[in-house]
Amino acid sequence: YVRYVGKAFWPSRLAAFYPHPGPLLPTWEIWASTSVLLLVTALFLHWRRRRYLLAGWFWFLGTLVPVIGMVQVGLQSMADRYAYLPYIGLFICVVWAVADTMRERKIGTIWWAVPSVLLLATLGLVSRHQLAYWHDNQTLWRHALDVTSDQNFVAHDELARDLVGRGRTEEAIVEFKKATSLSGYAASNMIEIGMYEQEHGHAQDAIQEYGQALNDSRDSNSRATALTLLGSAFLQAGDLRRAKASYASALHEDPNSSAALLAGGLLAEREDNVSLAVAQISHAVQVEPSDVGYLVLEQALRRAGRSSDADEAEAHARQISRDLVQARRSAEQILAMSGVVPE
């Protein structure tokens, strides 16, 4: 309540997200805030002849009840967007009190015109200054970190996502790590961070992120995804044995995981186990037919000496592909990343 009152009369240090302080507040803050609220209420009761003071004050107190945290909704401690209706009550108190004072003291309107214009101009400048922080996501979330605290995990997370969109992934990873250290991420987020790490050659860091995602995953599909990516990170780190085990575990979680089937098949092809490679890649394209998948299968079939079946796989790729040249490039990249030399 007191923070909302303060920001109503001087709108500064506004943030898109205010982190929750946790279950315990400093005792002095509780007593100080309670004292302020009781004092204002007592004064307005004393001046109850001016009924608009009580009306406006209880309007403010009442309409703000749903968002003061008695029943916590969301992750924020407060949100400026909740204040529009409650602030009507405060403005009723101020505007009608000023009008009453002018009338009682017989102050001419002209004497209030200049201060009113100056006040409006000042608040206009303050508003314009605050609006500048909404220029772009990076400016907005860096400002949120400046005016709240470095513990604002939502600001770190949003800043990281903006940096990813700008191609500044190394900086984004730093922000993601700050966010994860402050608040537990869902498995899908950990997988996303792991992929950023892996894309930039940080295989060991990616392994840690995928491992954490695996620990937090409960359903088979999520676990299969985490295990498949974990296998790819082990492959990037040169640990073929653990990559193979990860792919096998992924298929144990979800026998129809096309990603695990394809990755496991490519690893089998790399180890010259072409029969297993053909079986798994064939299964993968049955589960999820694609031009790239058929072109990868074509390579495995040619390596196995099954030229007619390879030609048939290539024909399937031609039939469903919208851009066969791009599909071939993608297939070559997948083979190269898996350490398989095309036939």
Protein architecture, described:
The structure is a single chain. The chain has about 350 residues and is mostly helical. Helices cover about 75% and strands about 0% of the residues. The protein is built from 17 helices and no strands. The radius of gyration is 31 Å and the shape is elongated. About 30% of the residues are buried. The mean pLDDT is about 85.
β-strand percent reads: under 5%
What Rg is obtained from the alpha carbons, in whole angstroms? 31 Å
Largest sheet: none
Helix content bin: over 70%
Order of helices and strands: HHHHHHHHHHHHHHHHH
Whole-number average pLDDT?
86
Q: How would you briefly describe this protein structure?
A:
The protein is built from 17 helices and no strands. The protein has helices at about 1-10, 25-45, 50-65, 85-105, 110-130, 135-145, 155-165, 170-180, 185-200, 205-215, 220-235, 240-255, 260-270, 275-285, 290-305, 305-320, 325-335.
How would you describe this structure in keywords?
17 helices
What is the secondary structure topology, with strand pairs?
Blueprint: H1 2-9, H2 27-46, H3 51-63, H4 84-104, H5 109-131, H6 137-147, H7 153-165, H8 169-182, H9 187-199, H10 203-216, H11 220-236, H12 240-253, H13 258-270, H14 274-287, H15 291-303, H16 307-320, H17 324-337
